[in-house]
Amino acid sequence: MRLLTLASITLASLAGSALAADLPSSKAAPLLAPAPTADWTGFYIGANVGYGGDTFDYPVNVARVGSGSAHLTSGGVLGGGQVGYNKQFGSYLLGLEADIQGTDVKAELGAGGAVGGTTFDGKAGSSLDYFGTVRGRLGYLATSNILVYATGGFAYGGLNSYAKGSIAGVGSASLTKDSDLTGWTVGGGAELALNPQWSVKGEYLYADLGKATLASGNILGTSASLSVKPTVNVFRIGLNYKLDAFDVASVIAKY
């Protein structure tokens, strides 16, 4: 009799447990885990490619004659790399970035023809061989993974200017001048974090590289000067890789 009673209680208990398992739970469903967010603080390196162009101005001044300026439209591709550091403050970001790139941005004017049976031809222009900046960045996180920013700072570049001409039966002449230029830049862009390490960006910069004197002195018996003032609009895309503490320590140890 005792064995029967014990068996009945055990069966009843098991049945109750099974029934309870089939009933809806009164506990609240667990909340979904928040999506991972980007941490923008740290060092990064990257590469970029784009297009640049605007105008190269050539101010000329001739004593007793006057002054004026020629304007040549410039354009060409560019590509290079960048390195920088970001510090995130909530939804805001402060950063510093340096970049350098080789360019094919150039402006050229060619002329040729014949006057009184004498033929002539020539060309003149300038090419921006390299271009770089050192800029601050002030950004705002539109979302945790999307950064919009304004940027500005120091700009520099290397400019090669030249003039070549010839007159049939008279001869030819050429002038070449390399100039290291400095100026300023300002712009903005947007950057998307793809994952904790990689991000892509689109960026616009306007740069004024100052002024270089190409020729100055006594020309044909009078005082004259010729200069060049290059400006450039840069449209580029870039890919950045965020360095972790181990990467930074390895670079420091190597050098």
Secondary structure elements and their pairing?
Blueprint: H1 2-22, E1 42-53, E2 55-62, E3 66-73, E4 76-89, E5 92-115, E6 118-143, E7 146-167, E8 171-193, E9 198-208, E10 212-219, E11 222-242, H2 245-254
Antiparallel strand pairs: 1-4, 1-11, 2-3, 2-11, 4-5, 5-6, 6-7, 7-8, 8-9, 9-11, 10-11
GO cellular component, one term: cell outer membrane
Family: Belongs to the Omp25/RopB family.
Signal peptide: 1-20
Describe what you observe in this structure.
12% of the residues lie in helices and 69% in strands. The chain is mostly beta strands. Mean pLDDT is 80; it is low at 1-23 and 31-36. The protein has one domain (49-254): Porin, CATH 2.40.160. The chain has 2 helices and 11 strands; from the N terminus they run αβββββββββββα. Strands 1-4-5-6-7-8-9-11 form an 8-stranded antiparallel barrel. It is elongated, with a radius of gyration of 34 Å.
What structural keywords apply?
mainly beta, Porin, 11 strands, disordered N terminus, elongated, 255 residues, 12% helix, single chain, eight-stranded antiparallel β-barrel
Describe the strand arrangement of the main beta sheet, using strand numbers: 1-4-5-6-7-8-9-11
- Give the class-level CATH name: Mainly Beta
CATH-defined topology: Porin
What is the string of SSEs from the N terminus onward? HEEEEEEEEEEEH
Low-confidence stretches: 1-23, 31-36
Radius of gyration: 34 Å
Supply the number of structural domains: 1
Tell me the structural class. mainly beta
Report the oligomer. Answer: single chain
